[in-house]
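Weekly sync, protein design subgroup
Attendees: M.S., D.O., the rotation student, P.L. (late)

Item 1: inverse folding check
M.S. brought a backbone from last month's batch and wanted to see whether the design step gives back something sensible before we order anything. D.O. pointed out we never logged the input encoding, so this time it goes straight into the notes. Structure tokens as presented (272 positions):
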């Protein structure tokens, strides 16, 4: 199994090794099964997620239309300067971002790992076999101390203590957050008024309390989705989960929708 040298038992922090059969085991006997698709479930108890397989599949189909291309190009440029030996996507969802980054880093030997608390998300991600995928909690990462040069955290929660623990000295976090104009057109369509106004100031301030922001890279793409893709868009984003039914119908009736995909990549290092 690839990236085995990076792993540690989430229960006792000892290294894990491949046992006979389809499992990983640590010296204390804690065992984690390797699924037939190749991922490992490190959770010690079931977790109920607020989103399911259909939403994750919708997100993957939208990603396949080039929705994240501008972001991926920017992330690939950052990840190559300097090139990390090991990169973790913490909160990888169904894996579209990490798989897109992998394609842009072909020819390098970066050890890529993706973890998410959603088992359904990791099941979908595991179709890409050249990445280590794990079902795990961000508050208890199944990796050793100081094993990653770079952590990607894209539109997901972060845990500063665990990120600090698994980062090597000098390692960086690439934290992706929505910019104020992210999906502005959709917010206006579905909500209007004050609800159409968004600010990332609170998220940025919280991140900057834990990590020194050494650089901010802005990404702003215009993406046009056709009528057939709109149900997936509304299913994948929280903007569509509590919208007025009449506004939802009006959005679904559109022939196409041009969207602003505006994001900020906060490049941070742990505050000493």
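Designed sequence read out in the meeting:
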């Amino acid at each position: 199994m690839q990236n085995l040298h990076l792993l540690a038992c989430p229960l006792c922090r000892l290294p894990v090794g491949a046992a006979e059969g389809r499992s990983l085991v640590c010296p204390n006997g804690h065992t984690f099964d390797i699924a037939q698709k190749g991922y490992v479930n490190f959770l010690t108890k079931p977790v109920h997620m607020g989103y399911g397989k259909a939403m994750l599949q919708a997100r993957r189909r939208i990603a396949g239309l080039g929705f994240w291309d501008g972001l991926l190009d920017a992330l690939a440029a950052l990840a190559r300067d300097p090139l990390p030996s090991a990169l973790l996507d913490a909160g990888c969802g169904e894996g579209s971002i990490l798989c897109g980054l992998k394609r842009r880093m072909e020819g390098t030997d970066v050890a890529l790992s993706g973890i998410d608390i959603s088992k359904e998300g990791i099941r979908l991600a595991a179709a890409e076999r050249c990445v280590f995928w794990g079902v795990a909690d961000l508050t208890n990462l199944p990796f050793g101390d100081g094993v990653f040069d770079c952590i990607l955290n894209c539109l997901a929660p972060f845990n500063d203590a665990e990120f600090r623990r698994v980062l090597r000295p000098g390692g960086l976090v690439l934290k992706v957050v929505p910019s104020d104009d992210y999906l502005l057109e959709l917010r206006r369509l579905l909500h209007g008024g004050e609800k159409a106004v968004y600010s990332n100031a609170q998220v940025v301030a919280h991140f900057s309390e834990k990590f020194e922001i050494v650089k901010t890279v802005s990404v702003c793409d215009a993406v046009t989705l056709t009528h057939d893709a709109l149900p997936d868009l509304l299913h994948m984003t929280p903007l569509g989960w509590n919208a007025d039914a009449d506004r939802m119908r009006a959005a679904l009736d559109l022939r196409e929708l041009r969207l602003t995909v505006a994001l900020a990549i906060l490049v941070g290092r742990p505050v000493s």
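Discussion: The first helix runs from residue 53 to 64. The chain has a mean pLDDT of 93.
Action: P.L. to compare against the previous round before Friday.
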